[in-house]
Structures are given as C-alpha cells and as structure tokens.
Amino acid sequence: MQTISDKIYFNKQSVRLRGVDFFDVCAIFECGQAFRFDKVEGSAHAVEYGGVAHGRYISLAQDGDEIIIYGADEADFYNIWRGYFALDADMAAIRRDILAHSDAPRLSYAAEVGRGIRILRQDAWEALCSFIISQNNNIPRIKSLIRALCERLGEPIDASDMLSHGARATEYTFPTPETICAAGVDVLRELKTGFRAKYIYDAARRVCDGRISFSEIYAAPTAEASKMLEEISGVGPKVAACTLLFGFGKLDAFPVDVWIRRVIEKYGFDPAALGDFAGLAQQYLFYAEREESK
DNA sequence: TATCAGGGTCGTT
DNA sequence: AACGACCCTGAT
C-alpha cells in the first residue's frame, strides 16, 4: 500500500492528513468529475467543499498540504474515503507514466495546471446515471438536476451536525436503480430531465433485471466494458468512458467531449496511445482548457 | 427579449 | 459517414 501521507490524525468526526502531495481540493471538485459537491462559503479553511458520496455527507477542507475530512471517523476513512479520494494511488508514478507516453507541450502544461487532480472512485450506478444526465447539458444544470433527483427519490441523511460545513439539515442519498424503476419514467420527466428521462429509466431497468451486470463490467477490459454500457439507450462512447473512468476505476478510459475535441483541434494534440492512465491525462486537458476559457 | 450552446446520442439519409 | 432533432436552462 502506497504511503498516504506523512501523518494521519483521527477524531470522532474528522480525519486530518498532513503532507499530502498532488492533491488540490478545488481542482478535484471543479474538474467536472463529481456533481454533488459544492464550495462551502465562509469556511474557516482556505478551501472547503461539502457533498454526498457513498451515502454519507462529508466536507473536505484544505490548507496547504493539510487535508481534513469532516463527518468521517477512522472506520469510514479506511472503508470509504481513502479509496474515494484515491489516497492510496502513487500519483508521482502515474504522472511519470502519462508524460512518458506523450511529449505534447499542451499535455505537460495541463498536467501542471491540473497537478492536484485525483480521479475519484465514485459509485458505479451514480456515475452512470450522472453522465447520462450530462449529455448535451451544462454543468450548473447537471448539478441541479442531480440534486432534484436525489431530493425526490433518494433517502434522507441527517446532516444536522454538518451545518457549519455547508450541509443542509437534511441531505439525500443517490437513488438506487430499484427506486427509479419503481418510480417510473414520468417522475423523471417531472424533474425536467427532458429527453434523458427515458435513458435514465432504461439504464435503471437494465441494471435491475440483470441485463447490465456491474461485476461483469468491472471484470472486462475497457473496450469490452464500454460496449456493454453502450447497450443502454442514451449511452454512447463518451458517457460510457466517463462511467468507466469515474465509476469503475478504469483509468485508461478516455472520454472525448467537446472540450477535448477543441484541444485536439487547437494544439494538434494526438490522444492515441496515452497508456494505462489516459483518463487522468484527459482530466488534465479538460480542466486546463476550461480554466482558460473563464 | 432573443439566441446560442451545453462533459452527446439517436434516428434517418 | 453525415446531419438534424432533442428537453431545458445558463450565459451573453
């Protein structure tokens, strides 16, 4: 197991890590991989983001190389958050591998801009559903649609002790495929998901009746896993790649979206043969391009 | 107020 | 392989 950080301190409701490198809370949550975390305004820390993942509300604060996870104890840290935040990944080695596969100046630049990005290990169903919603949509609306979906069909979480960390008194889990099946496609329409309603419903149906098997997708190589996901109506190569990258930990998945097309066009960037960690390279390029457009 | 575009995909040529 | 349609809304 890779060294997580120099020191870890556990309290009843928080975990503090010191000496963490390649970890930028702002970049992690602003690079468009997770839609349920928001910046905590008026935080006592330099940066703090709060949100729900794996059925729990937490916030992640950062001051320099010190990270604090609020709302987590030692058991949660080892069972959930160490993996979720990829704290066991050898980022230096991964970055060396990426840069050894391509000497494109734009990539080395973007890898510096996005130095602190980590690919979060999100729940597979949540990732699938979220990136179905993301198609032909903008990030603010994607976030508000997902919030509405969770408030309507998710389970309430008592987050009253996290109010000072950006939580509402009640937060909601991401709804299961079973819940979405039971609710029906009309509920998804009411939430104004538009033409995506039938796609979300089809995905839920296929997961519930076993036509989509997450364990088979996990076991399959990325190209085959993508074909399995593409059986779902409304899932093409891009949504499948995002699902595999963020929900199944397949770091070689390389989502090609409008921003990456732009990078390929503008810089003559060649995305072929980026290696086993192409997905992180994609996040570097995506993040750098979007930051520049602001 | 009007128009464009948004982390794409589908159905039709 | 190319092209328009698609729900709705954030941005200009």
What's the number of helices? 14
Structural class by secondary-structure content: alpha+beta
CATH overall fold name of the largest domain: Endonuclease III, domain 1
Output the radius of gyration. 19 Å
CATH homologous superfamily designation of the largest domain: Hypothetical protein, domain 2
Instruction: Quickly count the domains.
Output: 2
> Helicity range of the residues?
40-55%
Distance between the termini: 39 Å
Any descriptors?
Endonuclease III, domain 1; 14 helices; 6-stranded antiparallel beta sheet; TATA-Binding Protein; two-stranded antiparallel sheet; 294 residues; 13% strand; single chain; 8 strands; DNA-binding; alpha+beta; 2 domains
Q: How would you portray this structure in words?
A:
The chain has helices spanning 25-30, 74-84, 91-101, 105-113, 124-134, 139-153, 177-183, 185-190, 197-208, 214-219, 222-229, 237-247, 258-267, 278-293; strands spanning 7-10, 14-18, 37-39, 47-53, 56-63, 66-70, 156-158, 170-172. The longest helix has 16 residues, at 278-293. The strands form two sheets. It has a six-stranded antiparallel beta sheet. It has a two-stranded antiparallel ribbon with strand order 7-8. The chain is built from 14 helices and eight strands. A hairpin with a 7-residue loop joins β3 (37-39) and β4. With 294 residues, it is α+β, with helices and mostly antiparallel strands. The mean pLDDT is 96. The protein folds into two domains: 7-88, TATA-Binding Protein; 124-247, Endonuclease III, domain 1, CATH 1.10.340.30. α5 (124-134) runs antiparallel to α9 (197-208), α5 packs antiparallel against α12 (237-247) and α7 (177-183) crosses α9. The chain binds a DNA duplex (13 and 12 nucleotides) through α6, α12 and α13.
